[in-house]
Specification:
- This protein has 128 residues and is of the alpha+beta class.
- Helices cover 20% and strands 23% of the residues.
- The protein contains three helices and eight strands.
- Strand 6 and strand 7 form a beta hairpin.
- 27% of the residues are buried.
């Protein structure tokens, strides 16, 4: 299984914002407009654990971790297949993987958090 390369996440929000800026205006597709933002410090501790595991390259608790996320919901910005990868965020007390995930983007190194199994996403902001 190939895991996407990771670099410092501090500039992730800036990279995504600069990708959206064209000629001094923000251009957003309906999908991109649906993505919110969350401060790294506001994530549950289990999301911090998952991000640390991603940075280390594993090992991951579930076989599905690191697999390609296909963005079927169309909420994240449209990218080529294989751009996004998903990872489980442990839900305390759950007997299953639960609904929480981190979805990473390969080129811009962006990290998205979902607490509701892909119904909504928040871009992780590392600078607040």
């Amino acid at each position: 299984m190939r895991f996407p390369p990771r670099i410092t996440r501090i500039g992730a929000a800036a990279a995504v914002l600069s990708a959206l800026l064209v000629g001094g205006t923000v251009t957003a597709t309906p999908a991109a407009a649906a993505v919110g933002s969350i401060c790294y410090s506001d994530l549950p501790s289990q999301a911090h654990d998952t991000l640390d595991l991603i940075e280390q390259g594993g090992p991951f608790p579930f076989d599905q971790d690191g697999t390609v996320f296909r963005n079927r919901e169309g909420i994240l910005p449209s990218q080529a297949s294989g751009y996004y990868h998903e990872y489980t965020v442990i839900t305390p007390g759950s007997d299953t993987r639960g609904a929480r995930r981190i979805v990473t983007g390969e080129r811009n190194q962006e990290d998205y958090y979902t607490a509701d199994h892909y119904e909504s996403f928040d871009l992780v902001n590392y600078s607040c």
